[in-house]
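hiii, so i know i said id send this last week but things got crazy w the move. better late than never?? heres the sequnce for the chain we talked about at the cafe, plus the structure i predicted for it. fair warning i was half asleep when i ran it
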Amino acid sequence: MDIGIAAGKNGAVLAALLGRIYEAGGVAAQVYLLAGDRQNTHKAEDAQAHAPFDILLIDTAACPLYAAGRTTMLSTDARHSSPALHTLPQGHRIVSYGFNGKSCITASSLRGEQLLVCLQRSFPCADGRMAEPMEFAVRRTTNGPDAQLLLTAIAAALCGGIHPDTISAFFEKA
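okay and structure toks below
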């Protein structure tokens, strides 16, 4: 599975975390940073060679249009202009995530070391399976990623077909 990430300053951390979650789920994934920390970003030509991605996660205003994935994930928390969504091919999937109550994937509560993740609507995963509405808990650690980064990684894993039990178990061990 090829995943493109257009993210800001935490793009490299997100890419590494997402790679470990997919590995724990037994899914081979290649993650490409399209924007963010220039030191850790693949050259645009290299990333373009792998487009379209199975999943494109947009968490920043700058996103190359060539990178449109089969599933595009949009943060409802980030301030960005949606990248010409009307130009996406018919049948293209868009999944929203964030702490906004209207997001498809959101957090219904955040208390201490627990994040309760809520899938508010069904959506097709990149592997063809349907993710159904549900809630599941994920353990947070004090030295782990912040809640926003954690929710972003969880949303991208869900879109890729990683089962919620696998995600919960991953963070329980972390």
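btw The chain has a mean pLDDT of 79. thought thatd interest u
miss u guys!!
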